Amino acid sequence: MKIAILGARGFLGQNLFPALLAQGHEVTGFFLNPKQEVVGGLENKSIRDLFVSSINEASTFDVIINLAARRSTRNQYFTDKEVHYFTYEIPKQIILRASNPQTIVINASTYIQNFEGKPGHTIDSYGAAKQELSQFLEQASGLGSFKTRDLFFFTLYGVGDRSSHLVPQLINAAKSGDEIALSPGYQLINLLYVSDAVLNILNCISLSLEANYCKNYVWSEEYFSVRDLVARIELTTGRKINASWGGREYVGHEMLQQWPIPMAQLPGFSAPTNLETGIRLIWKASETA
User: Fold this and answer.
1) Quick one: pLDDT at residue 159?
2) What is the mean pLDDT of each run of 10 residues along the chain (289 residues)?
3) CB count, 10 Å around CB of 189?
4) According to the model, what pLDDT value does residue 215 have?
5) Torsion region of 144: left, alpha or beta (phi above 0 gives left; psi -120 to 50 gives alpha)
6) pTM of the prediction?
7) How far apart (Å, rounded) are the C-alpha atoms in residues 33 and 49?
8) What CATH code is carried by the domain that includes residue 114?
9) On the CB side of 146, how many CA atoms lie within 13 Å of its CA?
10) CA dist 102 to 47, 147, 152, Å?
């Protein structure tokens, strides 16, 4: 199949495109500033190419996987306008130009973009842009422009994740012994190892759609608190985490009691990597880094 990935250099994208290539797919990554050479078998193309070329059957794709997004963080600030442009406007325009009525769009969204799991009750500009993109995909799919499987993830983790994210921070704290400031720690989380996320996306490519637009959550219903996560990392690694509980406040998207899930689980969902195995893989990688 001809498959396009938006956001192929991100955490999930870097794990996904080699798996697609291994299955024999023709994979193209679209970037604002692409490298000229083919990296690891992934063809790099400029987003601008889609805007200047005429649309024909040869320029469309069987599958478009959207992983593209920007979110403002303490380490990298983006204005609300920039977040909207990168998270909504660019993916929307690429999907419109690179699809046909038979194209399947697989969109990676996030469940916690909506406070209390309520659609439209977004927590920030990133959540609002993600919500707007889902609304566009549902509307365009309803008109027959393409078909969509809208995937809602909770939290992904694994080797290669950003050092600013929770699990890498905790692993680094266990390794170094340095104090780490955490919330009171009673918020609930749910973790899916990145290779398991890849496995489920690969499944989506051959999975029959029940309708032109389908949305599914992609996680197993094993929720645990941050305090539980710290204890399990300590038990798995044999190292103590010097946690300063209450060293920071809770933030808007943290779930203190389980929110409702207004969608069905992805058919055939699979998560073979348990948390302890995932922790061991990250710990081993940190020792060789």
Assistant:
1) 97
2) 91 94 92 62 70 60 92 74 92 94 95 73 84 96 97 96 94 96 96 98 93 96 95 98 95 85 94 97 88
3) 18
4) 95
5) left
6) 0.92
7) 11
8) 3.40.50.720
9) 24
10) 21, 7, 22
Nearest to 274 by CA among 111, 157, 110: 157
Place of tokens 């995937």: 151
Within 118-189, strands assigned E span: 147-153, 155-157, 180-182, 188-189
For residue 16, the cross-strand partners are: none
Helix (H) or strand (E) run with residue 278 in it: helix 275-288
Question: Which tokens is 81 given?
Answer: 């306008």
The type of residue at 155 is T
* 190/123 Cα distance (integer angstroms): 18
Q: Which residues lie closer than 8 Å to 202 by C-beta, 6 or more apart?
A: 19, 20, 23
Domains: count for the chain: 1
pLDDT for 30 equals 83
52 in helix, strand or coil? helix
**Range of 45's domain?**
2-288
Q: What is the pLDDT of residue 158?
A: 98
Question: 66, 6 in Cβ contact below 8 A?
Answer: yes
Q: Please answer whether residues 103 and 61 qualify as being in contact, where contact means their C-beta atoms are separated by less than 8 angstroms.
A: yes
Give pLDDT, residue 42. 74
